[in-house]
Specification:
heterodimer; A: 26 helices; B: mainly alpha; 76% helix
């Protein structure tokens, strides 16, 4: 039964092919059945495989399907590698993917591009499965680029609006920077170690490279470049907020639950390389910490519901990177899993809110909709609680593990922990700011329609609510992957625990005072010029877009402008001018007068003969 | 019998060849151009004859016979062309036939 692992991406790929080849001629109902059903089937197979795999007690399982390419010593095949890590990813992708597909059948119901949407979604799931199941880095890279492509296609799904196309291009180009770095990393790995099979690579690196050796540092830096691009971490984070231009199910599936966590997966998969380069590993932690704090500040100032969630995603992935950086690999993947539940829940619930408020995304134009939209309200409440790590929700367990692991690190561990706790405080603040503003207070003029959607939109929300509440009790089979030893007991004082529980609660409390009871007024706070400029600064995402515009976009445009008629072409244009001039000169000799030709022949002959005689 | 020195024969051939060339270059009437060409051909033929007489070989004379035949064929074709040209352009001025210029 484990042999059937190749079915997983195949179902989605077949779904994609049938939807693409019929080019939207299928009735909507059938397109929905194909689109969601293929992922559902994948999920069913994934569950069966998971049960079998866990039952077998094996550490890993490899299934070679066929050889893709075999050139010299490079041997890349469609072979799938299953262990605790890819098993977790596989279940998250197919399970949450299926719920989101199901939800999307309702959400996209009145969209003319219905079957195109599901074609892209299915292709995405296939590529993502390829990414996490591939046993060599080439197959992983295939999936990596595949999900990037689908992300591009789906951000620009409503392509009639040029801004969406711009956002799609931005996401594509910015992640491409990271992908290039990762590709170079792969080349370097292949050149040095002669294989791209992940397990062989890890073994070879471990035996051949010393800890802290230059090669290990270079390779892990390059791979980290790919990871930060895909996972929207500093310094390649600017694309994620704009990626919210896509339909909301896309934001839930690609830009919250799965694709953006591919970077975390990549680092976890190649964690041996990072263990060989402790400086880079520490860099991962700092990148995570700085990103999570920056994103937290920015989320606090945004007014677009989806952008707030996007920044919160960035911030939560920052936690995952923090965990990777302090060597808490399992905790990172654990947070990845719980985050997939609650963030998908939040995005889908926000989709319901947006849809029933006639595509309004500004939270300050919403308000007071908890009575009209009860399902969204409860989804949001549970999702927000899990996101803020409210005790005994799923987010609590995973974030707790991350912070405790950070604290245990010698040296900068305390700083990382403090930053993480501060981030948790901000998480509480911005999450419940969003929650109170949207669901409480006065109605701001948008009269919500009946909470939209039938069972296919509410049922996924219910499942995700349960997941967001209880996923923290799932034990992931990651010990064999990361060489851990069961549940780690953290020996810390009650004070530390108290602080970690209190920080998000404090944030929630402040959000309550500002946005629910209105004990404090935001307007009064915003009156001072310092607060205004700070708000503006954070609202723009710490001015990163402007900075990159100045650093890269404007110089490029300037170069493009001065090079408008191609400096390099000038050289070749000169050749053209020269040959044209020569042509004009020689053409004069061709008069058409036969006697001239005879004369030239005779003169030439005389000249040659003379030369022959003289020399 | 005093044989004619080879130089005299060759000089005569050279003079004839030059005369023919001048005719080709200066004459505008195609008929005369053709005639001048014949003179040039015969000049080269004369050079062959003289040379073969000097060395006592027969190849020069054979070559002259070939040139003779060739000249006859050439004149036949050339005259045919001239008649066609005259029919089309009502002239035998060679300068009129300068359509193929660059």
């Amino acid at each position: 039964m484990l042999d059937l692992i190749w079915l997983l991406p195949t179902f989605s790929l077949l779904g994609f092919l049938s939807l693409v080849l019929t080019a939207g001629t299928l009735p909507k109902r059938i397109a929905a059945i194909i689109g969601a059903g293929s992922v559902g089937l994948s999920f069913a197979v994934a569950v069966i495989i998971a049960i079998q795999f866990l039952g077998s007690g094996e550490e890993y399982f490899v299934k070679e399907v066929w050889t893709w390419m075999s050139v010299g010593s490079l041997n890349a095949g469609f072979s799938f590698y299953l262990d605790g890590l890819s098993l977790t990813m596989m279940l998250v992708i197919t399970g949450i993917g299926f719920l989101i597909h199901l939800y999307a059948t309702g959400y996209m119901d009145d969209d003319p591009g219905f079957s195109r949407f599901f074609a892209y979604m299915n292709l995405f799931v296939a590529a993502m499965l390829m990414l996490v199941l591939g046993d060599n880095l080439i197959l992983l890279y295939l999936g990596w680029e595949g999900v990037g492509l689908c992300s591009y296609l789906l951000i620009g799904f409503w392509y009639t609006n040029p801004e969406n196309g711009y956002a799609a291009r931005k996401a594509f180009v910015v992640t491409r920077v990271g992908d290039t770095s990762m590709a170079i990393g792969l080349f370097l790995l292949f050149a040095q170690l002669g294989t791209l099979n992940i397990q062989d690579l890890m073994y070879a690196a471990e035996t051949q490279w010393a800890v802290g050796s230059g090669l290990a540092v270079a390779v892990s830096l390059l791979i980290l470049g790919g990871a930060v691009g895909k996972s929207a971490q500093l310094p390649l984070q600017t694309w994620l907020p704009d990626a919210m231009a896509g339909p909301t199910p896309i934001s839930a599936l690609i830009h919250a639950a799965t694709m953006v966590t591919a970077g975390v997966y990549l680092v976890a998969r190649t964690h041996i390389l990072f263990e060989l380069a402790p400086t880079v590993q520490l860099l991962v932690a700092w990148i995570g910490l700085i990103t999570l704090l920056m994103a937290g500040f920015t989320a606090l100032t945004q007014s677009d519901i989806k952008r707030i969630l996007a920044y919160s995603t960035m911030s939560q992935i920052g936690y995952m990177f923090l965990a990777l950086g302090v060597g808490a690999w399992s905790a990172s993947v654990f947070h990845l899993m719980t985050h997939a539940f609650f963030k998908a829940l939040l995005f889908l619930a926000s989709g319901t809110v947006i849809l029933s408020l006639h595509h309004e995304q500004n939270i300050f134009k919403m308000g007071g909709v908890r009575k009209q939209l009860p399902v969204s309200f409860w989804s949001f409440l549970i999702g927000s609680l899990a996101l803020t790590a409210f005790p005994f929700t799923s987010g609590y367990f995973s974030k707790d593990e991350i912070l405790l692991a950070a604290l245990e690190l010698d040296g900068p561990g305390l700083w990382l922990w403090m930053g993480g706790v501060l981030g948790a405080f901000f998480t509480g603040l911005y999450t419940f700011r969003l929650f109170f503003v949207v669901f409480f207070g006065d109605n701001k003029g948008h009269e919500p329609t009946q909470e939209v959607g039938g069972w296919n939109m509410s049922w996924p929300l219910f499942v995700l609510m349960v997941g967001a509440l209880l996923a923290g009790f799932i034990g992931l089979p990651l010990d064999a992957v990361f060489g851990g030893h069961g549940e780690e007991e953290h020996d810390v004082s009650a004070l530390i625990h108290g602080i970690m529980i209190a920080a998000p609660l404090l944030g929630i409390g402040i959000a309550y005072l500002f946005y629910y009871s209105k004990t404090f007024s935001v307007d009064k706070l915003m009156a001072s010029p310092l607060a205004k400029s700070l708000h503006k600064f954070w609202f723009s995402g710490w001015g990163m877009d402007a900075l990159y515009n100045w650093l890269f976009v404007y110089p490029f445009l300037w170069l493009a402008r001065i090079n408008k008629d191609d400096l390099v072409d000038k050289l070749y244009a000169f050749v053209v001018v020269l040959s044209r001039a020569a042509h004009a000169m020689i053409v004069k000799t061709q008069t058409g007068y036969l006697r001239w030709y005879a004369l030239s022949v005779a003169t030439g002959l005389v000249l040659i003969l003379t030369l022959g005689v003289l020399l | 019998m005093e044989s004619i020195p080879i130089e005299h024969g060759l000089i005569l051939a050279g003079i004839l060849f030059t005369l023919g060339l001048i005719g080709v270059l200066t004459r505008r009437n195609i008929v005369f151009v053709l005639m001048s060409l014949e003179i040039m051909l015969n000049a080269s033929g004369l050079a062959f004859i003289v040379a073969s007489a000097r060395w006592g070989h027969a190849e020069g004379q054979v070559m002259f016979l070939m040139i003779l035949t060739l000249a006859a064929a050439e004149v036949a074709v050339g005259l045919g062309l001239i008649i066609q040209v005259y029919r089309r352009y009502q002239t035998v001025d060679i300068n009129v036939l300068s359509e193929m210029k660059g």
